[in-house]
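Work through this:
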Amino acid sequence: MPRKGHSPEQVLNKLRQVEIAVAGGKSVGVAVREIGVTDHTYYRWRREYGGLNLDQARRLG
């Protein structure tokens, strides 16, 4: 399956979506599937982008 190549903005948006879903009572696994990525990808993104703001993430990407 080809890679989608999400931009830093998209990654931060998807991380936020998972945070909101988990705060609303969903499990991380369910929330991650809803945004269309694997658990592995979610945790990698969280490690790489978790504490960054948009400008910092753009510099990484």
User: Anything to note?
Assistant: Residues 8-60 form one domain.
